[in-house]
Design goal:
Number of helices: 9
Order of helices and strands: EEEHEEHEHHHEHEHEEHH
Number of strands: 10
Strand order of the largest sheet: 6-7-8-3-9-10
Radius of gyration: 18 Å
Shape: globular
Strand content: 15-25%
Length: about 240
């Protein structure tokens, strides 16, 4: 198992955002996470990446306890992440954004990461925008850049937070194809997404969160068809 969460818990006052979550993710697996707004999905990612600390429980990555490790150490160890709301360095170019991510995440000098960043620009369809200032990109361009920056750190575990959110069905096709390629190439992916059809094209297992607790997990279409998920996630009474 490349990722193991044991009884992971985080509260904000009286609200338990993540409540005793147990999870194991195997190397090379693609796991999807769904749940209503406020279910604790992004907080779970924050705990995995070290942006927030748990009140209880542990995070293990590749057999090592990283529960108290700082975010950069986790990034260097091989955990990469995109954010639901893209957060590029707006006054830097697209290429410069990748350089910063690669230098930070790989702990290498600029000359050592230039070629890798160029390859990622090609893979994500950004090569024609390499010298464009990131702040001028439209939503699709920002989503591409967010995924590209996550890939620039050469992650062994890629956490995707709503990478298809806000995109049209036609626009979703590009990131889905790229994520499929990453997974088929041996990458490990945990993907939070409200655009369920995008998830179902990639993931082999689906987990549902509600009020911070894991409600159900299993084969994606079986999970989506369950009465509990239809009631909790879709608002359809059994």
């Amino acid at each position: 198992m490349i990722l193991q969460l044991d009884n992971l818990t985080r509260s904000f006052g009286s609200l338990k955002a993540v409540d005793g979550v147990q999870l194991e993710v195997a190397a090379g697996e693609a796991l999807g996470i769904i749940g209503p707004n406020g279910a604790g999905k992004s907080t779970l990612f924050n705990l995995i990446t070290g942006l927030q600390k748990p009140d209880a429980g542990s995070v293990q990555f590749d057999g090592q306890d990283i529960t108290r490790a700082p975010p950069r150490a986790r990034c260097i160890a091989g955990i990469g992440r995109s954010f639901q709301i893209p957060q590029p360095f707006e006054n830097l170019t697209v290429f410069e954004n990748l350089l910063v991510a690669a230098i930070h995440g790989r702990k290498q000098r600029e000359a050592q990461v230039v070629d890798a960043c160029g390859e990622i620009l090609e893979r994500t369809g950004l090569i024609g925008l390499a010298n464009r200032r990131a702040g001028t990109l439209n939503l699709l361009g920002r989503k591409r850049l967010e995924l590209a920056r996550a890939l620039a750190s050469a992650p062994r575990l890629l956490l995707l937070d709503e990478i298809a959110g806000g995109l049209t069905e036609a626009e979703c096709a590009e990131p889905v194809q790229l994520i499929q390629h990453i997974q088929k190439s041996g990458g490990t992916i945990v993907w939070i997404e409200h655009t369920v059809h995008a998830l179902l094209a990639v993931v082999s297992r689906l987990m549902v969160l509600n009020f911070g607790r894991k409600i159900v997990e299993g084969e994606p279409r079986a999970v989506m068809a369950s009465a509990e998920v239809r009631e909790i996630y879709m608002g359809i009474a059994a």
